[in-house]
Amino acid sequence: MKPLIAGNWKMHMTRSAARELATALVRSIPDPLEAADVALYPPFTCLSDVLGAVSDSEISVGAQNMHPQDQGAFTGEISPSMLLDVGATRVLCGHSERRQLFGESDDFVNQKVLAALGHDILPTLCVGETLAEREAGQTAAVVERQVRAGLAGVGADKTGEVTVAYEPVWAIGTGLTATPAQAGAVHAQIRALLQDLWAAAGETVRILYGGSVKPANARELLGVPHVNGALVGGASLSAPSFAGIIAATS
Ligand code: PEP
User: CA 47 → CA 9, 23, 126, 148, 165, distances in Å?
Assistant: First the structure.
């Protein structure tokens, strides 16, 4: 399975800085991109600029969030058709910062996944436990609940469009990384859940690892069974470091 390396820029970058970073990245990665697929998730305001900057490359571009409804009285929100209108083809659903800071429930995250698929936008469902949940021995239960709820109603015919990202909350932006054994255990659990949901089609879904991935640890993490790529926050904000993670796939 070809790995996917995805960069989540979170709430960083002005439009000109975004153009510079995306342009520098295009210059820093192989063309053609043989060993990996690459996706960028800039802020909404930078989507057009980043799409323009990567238009001659194989990099795909998505949004970090999306409202499930197509239009309506949802002040401050962005709809699936608005994302399509700007040219975005992917969306993150249920990033832990959305769940923790903005109170997104499993059900709301599921609505986003279904809305994305309904519009041919490729969703990445993000799941992962907090430190308190891990210490209480609840990791497997939390991940199972988030995977089953987030993917409820998604048919096996859609598995080619779905990605799952396992991001232990305690490893996001902290410099702490799951050990290969910790990541491997949860990725194997998610793979089994996907097979339970979709039988053989569940084997084809990419499961990304996220949480302080850097050039120095990428190769080891990407070598873990059922780790099919990385969702990268901080290290995606510099072209050399994000390119270094992409290079670890070759
Ligand atoms: C993320 O935001 O999805 C993430 C994994 O962040 P970081 O790489 O900075 O831990």
Answer: 11, 13, 21, 30, 21
| pLDDT (tens digit per residue) in 177-201 | 999 999 999 999 999 999 999 999 9
**Ligand 1 binding pocket includes 172 (Cβ within 6 Å):** yes
- The dihedrals phi and psi of 65, each to the nearest 5 degrees, come to -165, 170
Could you tell me the CATH number of the domain that includes residue 129?
Answer: 3.20.20.70
pLDDT value, residue 173: 87
pLDDT band at 104 (very low <50, low <70, confident <90, very high): very high
Number of domains, the chain: 1
Whole-model pTM: value is 0.97
Q: Please work out whether the CB of residue 173 comes within 6 Å of at least one atom of ligand 1.
A: yes
Residue 166 CA to ligand 1 center (angstroms) comes to 11
- The residue range of the domain holding 50 is 4-247
- By the 10 Å C-beta count (0-12 exposed, 13-18 middle, 19+ buried), 3 is classed as buried
Ranges assigned E (strand) in 87-143: 90-93, 122-127
Q: Which residue, among 160, 177, 166, has the nearest Cα to 219 in the 3D structure?
A: 177
d(CA 163, CA 125): 6
